[in-house]
Amino acid sequence: MNRLPDTFLWGGATAANQIEGGYREGGRGLASMDVVPQGTDRFAYMFGEISDLSFKDGRNYPALTGIDFYHHYKEDIRLMGEMGFKVFRMSISWSRIFPNGDETEPNEEGLKFYEDIFLELKKYGIEPLVTICHYDYPLHLVTEYGGFKNRRLIEFYKHYVTVLFERYKGLVHYWLTFNEVNCTLVLPYVAAGVVLDPAEDRDTQLYRAAHHILVASAWAVKIGHEIDPENKIGNMVCAGEWYPYTCAPKDVFQAMTNNRKLYFFTDVQARGEYPSYGLKELERKGIRLPFVENDKEILKENTVDFLSFSYYATHVVSADERVNAELAGNPLATLTNPYLGPIKYKRQDDPMGLRITLNALYDRYQKPLFIVENGTAAADELKNDTVEDDYHIDYYREHIKALKEAVLLDGVELLGYTSWGCLDLVSAGSGQMSKRYGFVYVDVDDEGKGTYKRYRKKSFYWYKKVIASNGEDLE
């Protein structure tokens, strides 16, 4: 083959907590990200360091409104149809289905809202790729149960997914269990609904939550396959290879160790058991995973059908503590790579790194892969009802070239590609709108003010051409 298969799924990706809004409508309950404000302490919330989750006067809470997809979804899906999308990655807000998360009966208005979205997508021949839980927990499950530190959340999640799989049977065929599950160890509040207890060992809390999420994910695979054998259910991780700072063996081993932090999760979800290196590390730390009866069997017998991931950049690490000093205290930090270009939003673009990441995952698991987030942000300026965003086009062009090389030259099995933030949306990191990824400009500023009108950017027409040519026309 010298071109991508005709079945390749082109599209874009979003998350409910970053686009949906409508937080007081349709019976929706408060969600975990609703109470995370903009500002210098935003990451303290995301790291699980702030226990007071009440709203504060004078603070801006961007997840409450997003880009008002709740009222604009028909217009937005029409724009996706115009671009020729084959797939749209979206998420369901758990608190729109179960406002508190622990109810017996679901909220019918919430179920109907997503059903209407799926039917609208079907009109344009767009396949929904649904993330069941994308950084989005009913706030009640956080404040009353402690998030996924509490094993009871597995049962709440099982009930939630059962309702989704039964209600949307035949409408949705592609599912993701959790978003960036490996971020549980870095952003516990965001990824697991966990506020850390300073009186308890941090790592013990994190790995307890991670185990519960991995078991819940396996249950979702089991339930989803039983309800509809046609369902394709994948995991989702935050990926991007770690490079050694030098070719010194200690640096190489340190990079391997960092990459294993990702494989710890993908090994469980794709192979069905914890890797020996991970168990040894936990043993050294004195951490016992909270296994109960049937956990091992559930994990082993319900591996994912495919692996999906976000890719934004690669990372660099050294084993030398003096070199690594600048990373201390920042779990998201990376050393600068002198062989790559300028740092933008604390990242360096690395298209070949995408090819490397694809090969690393496919070599390890031999399961189909799906790139479900990839993109770059800029402070776009609207002029004459459009945006001349050549920087977006340049970024996507080089990364699409890289994924094609992985498929056509290396033999990687890749299901599709959904660029992140196909519509401008609230940044998960900063909570701002000025960090814009989309092919569509949304007239909303960082304070949530604006007309909410949508405008096609230059990249809109470029991506339409890419999809129409199945990735052949990248100019």
From TrEMBL:
Keywords: Glycosidase, Hydrolase. InterPro entries: GH, GH_1_N_CS, Glyco_hydro_1. Belongs to the glycosyl hydrolase 1 family. PANTHER family: 6-PHOSPHO-BETA-GLUCOSIDASE ASCB-RELATED (PTHR10353:SF122), GLYCOSYL HYDROLASE (PTHR10353). This is 6-phospho-beta-glucosidase. It comes from Laedolimicola intestinihominis.
